[in-house]
Amino acid sequence: MGLLTVSDLHCARGGIAVLQGLSLTLEPGQALVLRGPNGCGKTTLLRTLAGLQPPLSGTITCPTDSMAYAAHADGLKATLSVVENLTFWASIFGQTDIEPALVAMDLHSLANRAAQNLSAGQKRRLGLARLMVTGRPLWLLDEPTVSLDTHACDLFVAMLARHLEMGGGALLATHIPIDLATAQLLDLTPYRADPNTQAPDGFDEAFL
Amino acid sequence: MTALFWRDLRLALRAGGGFGLGLAFFFIVAVLVPLGVGPEPTTLARIAPGICWVAALLASLLSLDRLFALDQEDGSLDLLATAPLPLESVATAKTAAHWVTTGLPLTLASPVVAMLLNLPAAGYPWLVAALFLGTPALSAIGTFGAALTVGLKRGGLLLSLLVLPLYIPTLIFGAEVVRRGAVGMTATPPLILLAGITAGAIGLLPFASAAALRMNLR
Which of A9, A126, A205, B183 could make an S-S bridge to A58, C-beta 3.0–4.6 Å? Predict the structure, then answer.
């Protein structure tokens, strides 16, 4: 069984259908880079796969508890230090060892600094290091390289490559070319839904 | 779950966490009331149970809108929702942390407030007992309200409007315990009813909170 099998997926954002008829499979060791113009549904697809919103139709098959989601926001607490932030997420995911994550994203020199005193790129490095402490095989990454410098980008690609070698998988939404031999591209443009079709969603947003 | 509880406690105690705000508010209300209604000790003694409880309700309301909103702003809530921890546990941990940072300090500080309001000495233990048993319900109901309004910008006012009516049973029985205790009547029946409300709120509302969170995350 693969890491992820998606068949005939339709998803919507804010009551408007954005993607239709998407099918894909992801095997261990494979990375899939999602491409497409702004608003074509990359984030919506990742959120749907992560289970944060239900699909309109279609099926998503994956082993239970296999996904780690990294969104635009890093989920860091400003007044906690780098180590405290990582330790918290590690214990939420039932892990104890944060050392490999600190090493992978070169965070040792920042270990005791509060997250509010980190630069945007350093915060992003900490946010990506969080993936290492989840112990989950399938990473869903939304624009992971935003605000990273070239060195940090290389660190991230190396971390991703090691993750894939160990049998993990990754789904990335990004506009920047990722220098990874095993990565495959998937352009979402052909799957765009007609923006004029209203999603058959009974939830009345206007009520709020 | 304990990790989330300790993280929330730690955040509350750090700069900008808001720990102590509710407590300070509780004291200020207790100081303002005698200035407003006049200094006659008999009047104060008669209204003290109600004032103590209303002040406690409002004080615990103060920090509620931060409960989930902060986690939503920095993305933690999305990440918690995809974590192995069920949202019911998230809601329970948040309720517990909220109670330890507001309800418990209010309970411990209540004798001082009671003194400012000239509550008869016989009422002190009943006030502490009633707040100890009643404030967890305030935190649990408040967590539910915070979960309902988490997606809204500046949902704090709506949160108050939603939550305060739900506080009514706790207020009625809580104040009744103190009133009866202060005049020397038996106060056990309302205290048991108060404990029952709290047990029900703690047992049932995390499920409602989790359902509201799932709705708001979509």
Answer: A9
Total domains in the fold of chain B: 1
First to last CA, chain B: 23
Residue A192 bridge partners (DSSP)? A19
Q: Are strands A183-187 and A31-35 parallel, antiparallel or unpaired?
A: parallel
Interface of A with B in 59-78 (CB under 8 A): 65, 67-78
> Which SS3 state, helix, strand or coil, does residue B160 take?
helix
CA dist., res. A84 & res. A69, Å (int): 20
Instruction: Provide the residue range defining the domain that includes B123.
Output: 2-217
Cα separation, B180 vs B120, in Å, equals: 11
Question: Contacts of residue B74 in chain A, CB cutoff 8 Å?
Answer: 73-78
Q: Taking Cα atoms as reference points, which of B183, B169, B143, B160 lies closest to residue B46?
A: B183
Contact A188, A48 (CB under 8 A): no
Q: Kindly give, in sequence order, each residue whose CB lies less than 8 Å from that of residue A160, ignoring residues fewer than 6 positions away.
A: A31, A139, A170, A178, A180
The pLDDT of residue A205:
47
Q: Give contacts of A129 with chain B, Cβ < 8 Å.
A: none
Alpha-helix runs per DSSP H in B117-155: 124-148
Positions in chain B short of pLDDT 50: none
A52: nearest CB among B11, B78, B151: B78
Contact B194, B134 (CB under 8 A): yes
Residues of chain B contacting residue A137, judged by C-beta atoms under 8 Å apart:
none
pTM for the model: 0.87
Testing the interface with B: which of A47, A67, A77, A85 to mutate, by most B Cβ within 10 A? A77
Nearest by CB to B85, from A78, A80, A92: name it: A92
Beta bridge partners of A67: A138
Q: Over 60: is that where the pLDDT of A44 sits?
A: yes
Which stretches of B38-98 are DSSP H helices?
Answer: 41-62, 66-73, 76-81, 87-98
Q: Which one-letter amino acid corresponds to residue B30?
A: A
**ipTM of this complex prediction, to 2 decimal places:** 0.83
d(CA B179, CA B119): 9
